[in-house]
């Protein structure tokens, strides 16, 4: 393949230039609210994909119970069993697992599809935007504190911040603040770093089509699963710690 043709192909497949964003500035009370249009659009695309798959799989549940399970039904049951074993099974309390399994599994699926969608040319992963990962991490933190209060009571919850010694109160507060930051930066750093690496690879690999595509598929699919699983497991761990330590 000629160098000019290869460059044209990689220019079409490569991600947008690093640092460039399509931002919508909305004036509000003398200031501006900035909205990343691409991230918003891709987030809606991810939601549409998940809802579409759910509707397709839902059709497989309309058959009589005594009939042989369809492929869709078997796929759905296998997926649910896997998520329950890997996510719900790590909760320290069965009640907590029953209440929060829908949230954690949905979080896992959204992050997974967000990571995978970047494999498609011109598509950008929403999880490569810190605003997205930070919002998820803050939601996990909110739920962890909410269920810590619900399952332990307000008095025991507040007492947990001064244990084992009252002078550790500032450190305990800083520790709670650090959790969503580390949670969000871990996923954002991996996905943004992967996007940067693939962009550079597409720019310089002008003599071979197969190798960059293989790297893109590996990072987008395999690494996407790992990062989604780690993010969901950390969410479970943070909720467990918040409930148990209060």
Would you kindly provide a brief summary of this structure?
It is built from 8 helices and 2 strands.
Explain what you see.
It is a single chain. This protein is about 70% helix and about 5% strand. With about 250 residues, the chain is mostly helical. It has one domain (about 5-245). The protein has a two-stranded antiparallel sheet with strand order 1-2. Strand 1 (about 25-30) and strand 2 (about 30-35) form a beta hairpin. Helix 4 (about 95-115) runs antiparallel to helix 8 (about 210-245), helix 5 packs antiparallel against helix 7 and helix 5 (about 130-150) runs parallel beside helix 8. The termini are far apart. Residues about 1-15 have low confidence and may be disordered.
Which descriptors would you attach to this protein?
246 residues; globular; mainly alpha; 5% strand
Helix content: over 70%
The count of domains is 1
Cα gyration radius (Å)? 22 Å
Please indicate the percent range of residues in DSSP E strands (runs of 2 or more). under 5%
Strand order of the largest sheet: 1-2
The whole-number mean of residue pLDDT values reads 79
Distance between the termini: 64 Å
Strand elements, count: 2
Produce the secondary structure layout.
Layout: H1 3-13, E1 23-28, E2 31-36, H2 37-59, H3 71-86, H4 94-116, H5 130-152, H6 154-159, H7 169-204, H8 210-244
Antiparallel strand pairs: 1-2
Helix pairs in contact: 2-3, 2-4, 4-8, 5-7, 5-8, 7-8
């Amino acid at each position: 393949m000629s160098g000019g043709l290869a460059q044209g192909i990689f220019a079409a497949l490569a991600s947008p230039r690093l640092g460039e964003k399509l931002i919508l500035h909305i004036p509000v009370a003398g200031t501006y609210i900035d909205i990343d249009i691409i991230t918003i659009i891709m987030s809606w695309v991810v939601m549409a994909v998940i809802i579409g798959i759910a509707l397709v799989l839902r059709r497989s549940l309309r058959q009589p119970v005594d009939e042989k399970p369809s492929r869709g039904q078997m796929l759905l049951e296998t997926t649910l069993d896997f998520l329950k074993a890997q996510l719900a099974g790590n909760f320290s309390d069965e009640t907590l697992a029953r209440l929060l399994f829908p949230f954690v599994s949905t979080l896992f699926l959204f992050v997974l599809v967000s990571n995978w969608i970047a494999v498609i040319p011109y598509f950008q992963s929403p999880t490569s935007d810190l605003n997205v990962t930070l919002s998820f991490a803050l939601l996990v933190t909110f739920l962890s504190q909410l269920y810590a209060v619900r399952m332990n009571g307000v008095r025991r919850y507040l007492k947990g911040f001064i244990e084992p010694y009252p002078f550790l109160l500032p450190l305990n507060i800083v520790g709670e603040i650090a959790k969503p930051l580390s949670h969000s930066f871990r996923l954002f750093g991996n996905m943004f770093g992967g996007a940067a690496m693939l962009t550079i690879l597409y720019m310089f690999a002008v003599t071979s089509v197969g190798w960059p595509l293989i790297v893109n598929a590996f990072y987008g699919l395999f690494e996407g699963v790992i990062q989604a699983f780690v993010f969901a497991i950390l969410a479970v761990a943070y909720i467990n710690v918040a409930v148990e330590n209060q």
